[in-house]
Amino acid sequence: MSVLDNFQEWKEFLSSRIQQAEGLGMNRERINDLAYQLGDYLAHDIDPQNVQERLLKDLWSVASEEEQRMLAGLMVKLVDDGNR
After folding, report:
1. InterPro entries in the record, alphabetically (predicted)?
2. From CA 47, how far away is CA 81, in angstroms rounded?
3. CB of 75 closer than 8 Å to CB of 31
4. How many CB atoms sit inside 10 A of residue 35's CB?
5. Domain residues of the chain, as ranges?
6. CA 55 from centre of chain
7. Between 2 and 49, the higher pLDDT residue
8. How far apart are CA 16 and CA 19, in angstroms?
9. Which residues lie closer than 8 Å to 13 by C-beta, 6 or more apart?
10. Is this structure's pTM higher than 0.90?
11. Is 45 exposed, middle or buried, given 0-12, 13-18 or 19+ CB atoms closer than 10 A?
């Protein structure tokens, strides 16, 4: 089973990757930039596996680059706030 099959597992996966990045000294700006790149890849190359991913893909498709970056940053914040 892929982490993309279940949204909660996807959030937990992202959260652990953020913790690893921070542990390696990566700053929040760089983490958000990587989240944007990942979001762009997922939106263009991966079929959504659940309704939450479909919503994110649909939002991504109508957003400007600035809005996409904001959405990526919000996803980082969403999964990171659960660990604080």
Report:
1. DUF3243 (IPR021637), Uncharacterised_YmfJ (IPR024702), YmfJ/YflH_sf (IPR038292)
2. 27
3. no
4. 23
5. 7-81
6. 13
7. 49
8. 5
9. 3
10. no
11. exposed
